[in-house]
Amino acid sequence: VPPEKVEKAMDEVEKYIMTRQYKYVFCPETTDDEKKDLAVQKRIRALHWVTPQMLCVPVSEEIPEVSDMVVKAITDIIEMDSKRVPRDKLACITKCSKHIFNAIKITKNEPASADDFLPTLIYIVLKGNPPRLQSNIQYITRFCNPSRLMTGEDGYYFTNLCCAVAFIEKLDAQSLNLSQEDFDRFMTGQTSPKKQESDSFSPDVCLGVKQMCKSLDLLSQLNERQERIVSEAKKLEKDLIDWTDGITKEVQDIVEKYPLEIKAKSQALAAIDSENVENDKLPPPLQPQVYAG
């Protein structure tokens, strides 16, 4: 049997099985894929301030064609999560990568190199923040036809995506040629590179451009403030729940330690004027006296 037919038959079997078993084998509860997804998503969200210049990305989004390629690349990498078959997910990565190569080629007017591709892929991942990224990578690794991951352009692009995610997870000040102080300030939201760039505008820059940069910086600050407020609100909610649970537990411990005992009703005391032998020792009652006025 020709290798091409064997490959095609394996693809059809993979499609048939994985389409029907997808909900059972994608991000299963027995793994920590979901935990990794949340960690990567949070990490990428915290790195929203990273600029193409910091990553040495050879792409100019000011060129309309390049901007369209960047949008298509982001769309493809996000669309990966909607596919069920490993081969289809891998195809999304390949399409994304080809759009990246085209964007670099248009910007530089020459074929892109591997050194140009990886930084741009990292930038695309940071800008797109694809959903369930780690789960999709693990799903492809576990169930995709091994020959596709070992050879060919699909395997090459997939390997670069894994490298991009690993770089993002370990990204630090040295990776971006920043001082540790600036890196910490950017990560905590105290300032942003865009604000520093807007402060360094030359007097010849158009007033509209300055105003636009200020507006973008303001929106960025408002977004960071909103994220901090949401984070603090969730923390407050958790503290209130913990406090309520703690009070409830203390009350239960006290009730168990000092149980409430209801005693039987004691016999009522005899009234003073009732017929009682012990009342003989009481002084005689006062008699009303009438005085003539």
From TrEMBL:
Residues spanning the membrane: none
Gene Ontology process terms (BP): vesicle-mediated transport
Top-level taxon in the UniProt lineage: Eukaryota
PROSITE patterns, alphabetized: VPS9 (PS51205)
Domain (VPS9): residue spans on this chain: 34-177
Region of interest (Disordered), residue spans: 274-293
GO molecular function, one term: guanyl-nucleotide exchange factor activity
A GO CC term attached to the entry: cytosol
Pfam family of the protein (one): VPS9
Protein name: RABX5 factor
Native organism: Agelaius phoeniceus (Red-winged blackbird)
